[in-house]
Fold this sequence. Notes:
Elements: H1 9-12, E1 20-22, E2 35-37, H2 43-58, H3 64-77
Antiparallel strand pairs: 1-2
Helix pairs in contact: 2-3
Amino acid sequence: MKGFDGLPTSVTGHDYFPFTHSQAGTKREKRYDEWDALPKPPFDDWMQLMDGVDRRVSRRLLQPQDAQKLRQKIKELYPEADVPKWKA
């Protein structure tokens, strides 16, 4: 199933790496917290996501094309940033 920007939902889902922040504060409410999507996540969040995607690709849980799509998206959002190339 595809999610945010055509990437698999396993990449962008809340349980993997959310571009969201909890409204619950420090105390956990029941089992599920409410999350709000960030309109433009910070660059550091994208770098953490890229690291996680690279790890999942190396374990063959995601396709190498997913890592390439993510890098392309980061370059579109942050053209001045130095995004490491994918090591195939």
